[in-house]
Design brief:
alpha+beta, six-stranded mixed β-sheet
Length: 118
């Protein structure tokens, strides 16, 4: 069961990993079987896809995304808690509002992530 304390710590650590551009630290949050959903996949990779499956494929995607956005920065606005998931509302370097929901496995690694942009 996810609680507010875990959710706040996760969100701070996750955002710090991104803001430090530390791909290894970012990937440490995710399960090998991660399924990631985002409308940005199409833009970043130039393909008609909205889902990435597997940790290796996700790492490749984010490596490309980080190279394309040297100014990347996330500012946490709110953290919402569910039973086995949490949602982080944040503002990115493009001044967009983003909601990202993280569903956790039994090892408290993210098994599914869904990003939505405002």
């Amino acid at each position: 069961m996810i609680n507010q304390n875990f959710a706040e710590r996760f969100a701070r650590d996750w955002a710090a990993s991104w803001n430090d551009r530390d791909l290894d630290a970012i990937m440490a949050h995710y399960a090998d079987s991660i399924v990631f959903h985002s409308p940005r996949i199409k833009t970043v990779l130039g393909v008609e896809r909205a889902t990435i499956e597997g940790k290796a494929a996700l790492r490749d995607y984010w490596e490309t995304a980080l190279e394309a956005a040297p100014e990347l920065y996330f500012e946490i606005d709110t953290v919402l808690v569910s039973s086995d998931a949490l949602t982080v509302l944040y503002t990115n370097h493009r001044d967009q509002q983003v909601a990202e929901t993280f569903v956790f496995d039994e090892r408290l690694r993210v098994s599914r992530s869904i990003a939505a942009y405002g």
